[in-house]
Design a protein that fits this description.
Elements (H helix, E strand, L loop, with lengths): L8 H12 L3 E2 L3 E2 L6 H16 L3 E4 L5 E5 L8 E6 L13 H19 L8 E6 L13 H7 L4 H5 L9 H7 L15 E7 L4 H5 L4 E6 L1 E10 L16 H19 L4 E10 L9 E10 L2 H22 L2 E10 L6 H13 L5 E5 L4 H7 L4 E6 L15 H19 L7
Parallel strand pairs: 5-6, 5-7, 7-14, 8-13
Antiparallel strand pairs: 1-2, 3-4, 4-6, 8-14, 9-11, 9-12, 10-11
Helix pairs in contact: 1-3, 3-12, 4-11, 8-9, 10-12
């Protein structure tokens, strides 16, 4: 029988290194935002690589890219594997890209096995590159997988606008995506995603493979303070309605109230937009993106209400108005137990004892699992837990471990294994 451990690392490394140059800047990491020109180039390179291996490419209306291997016929069920090619601004090379290219590499290996008669597929396989997973250019994140799973209406997604007021529909059109192209596979029987951990638990445990049993919830709130523009010179201080001052006080109050009362929650205020953004004009609009993450939805609700009260106080203290632009909850996911068992078997048969763990970050697997698609999330170590930074790194041996376990898992699913018994 074919041993997945003999997969050549060079097959993955060559395409990974090539795509990693797209959007890269010296010492500034990779900037490949969703539906940008760089994203378009990466999508094209990925598609060409897979087409050379005999795959057909399909796109849905939100730009999700499906690399299809119709081994078992048009009526056969589907298995999906993948992640995303978009990055954060000045992000790392591994986040998302590892999962897409490793799934592509696994698919090509399985295709060779099928052609040689060493694999008898009962299911088809699609490698998926999901649109705008990161949420850096368009919010909400997990856009493509949310549309596919039915959690986000297509029209709502296409009308999302970035900081330059460019709609996602127009941005996709600019890179040649104008609606569905080809035959998009139906909802799969299972979805498997390989991803870097973005934490230190695997390193601390001395393991190369993690199997995610569940994820934290996230409450994402966008708040805008509205003041009044004025000249920063002659306008008397008593007459000023400074939205930036309100935002500053709101951010400080958010940090204080959450740290004091909900210390186990992860919190951030990570984006600030001020208008008109001139050094000689008092800010009249300040918009801040806040985030709370934790395993308990009820605690997030209480913490969120405490944060809103702090924001309201900062508005009152500065004579500004408070507007809640968005306040959305992403529910935690409990990953599919039967798929976890299959991944565990695949890992152990490949020589790896996996660590069962939880994920604080959200991934496309969360959107699919929460919509009813059985999903598995496999982690490989991140050196020092670094993520969303140019220094992001997963060592070659751990990349190979993830590729090995992913390929072994997909082989089991393609051949029809679907239960833990």
């Amino acid at each position: 029988m074919h041993d997945a451990r003999t997969l050549p690392a060079s097959k993955f490394a060559a395409i990974f290194d090539e795509i990693s140059t797209i959007g890269a800047r010296p010492s500034e990491g990779v900037t490949r935002l969703a539906a940008s020109a760089e994203d378009g180039v990466a999508r094209g390179l990925f598609a060409a690589w897979m087409e050379q291996g005999g795959a057909r490419i399909a796109l849905d209306a939100i730009g999700n890219q499906f690399v299809c291997f119709d081994w078992a016929g048009t009526d056969a069920p589907w298995i999906f594997a993948g992640s995303h090619l978009d990055t954060q601004p000045r992000g790392g090379r591994f986040d998302g890209t590892l999962g897409v290219l490793a799934a592509g590499c696994a698919a090509l290996d399985l295709s060779e096995q099928a052609s040689a008669g060493r694999l008898k597929p009962t299911r088809n396989l699609a490698v998926v590159n999901w649109t705008n997973e990161e949420g850096a250019r368009y919010q909400p994140s997990l856009t493509g997988s949310a549309v596919f799973s039915g959690a986000l209406p297509l029209d709502d997604a296409l009308t999302l606008r970035d900081g330059a007021a460019i709609s996602l529909k127009d941005a996709l059109a600019a890179i040649g995506i104008n609606g569905e192209k080809g035959t998009v596979p139906p909802s799969p029987k299972a979805y498997v995603e390989l991803h870097v951990e973005q934490g230190r638990k695997l390193l601390e445990a001395g393991r190369s493979i993690g199997i995610v049993e569940g994820t934290w919830a996230a409450r994402k709130t966008t708040v805008r303070w509205i003041g009044r523009a004025a000249h920063t010179g002659p306008t008397p201080m008593v007459d000023r309605r400074d939205a930036l001052l309100a935002a500053a006080q709101g951010i400080a109050a958010f940090e204080d109230v959450i740290a004091a009362n909900f210390p186990l929650l992860h919190r951030s205020a990570a984006r600030l937009v001020v208008e008109p953004n001139s050094p000689n004009v008092v800010v009249d609009r300040a918009t801040v993106w806040f985030e709370l993450r934790g395993p308990d939805v009820a605690e997030l609700d209480v913490a969120g209400q405490a944060a809103l009260a702090a924001f309201e106080k900062s508005a009152a203290d500065t004579g500004t108005q408070l507007e809640i632009v968005a306040d959305a909850l992403r529910n935690p996911a409990t990953m599919d137990g039967q798929l976890m068992t299959i991944v565990g078997r695949a890992a152990r048969s490949s020589g790896f004892e996996p660590l069962t763990m939880r994920s604080v970050a959200g991934h496309d697997a969360v959107a699919l699992q929460n919509s009813g698609v059985p999903s598995a999330l496999i982690f490989v170590p991140s050196v020092d837990g670094i993520a969303h930074h140019p220094d992001e790194l997963t060592l070659p041996d751990d990349v190979q471990a993830g590729l090995t376990v992913l390929t072994a898992t997909l082989r089991r699913l393609i051949e029809g294994e679907s239960h833990a018994g």
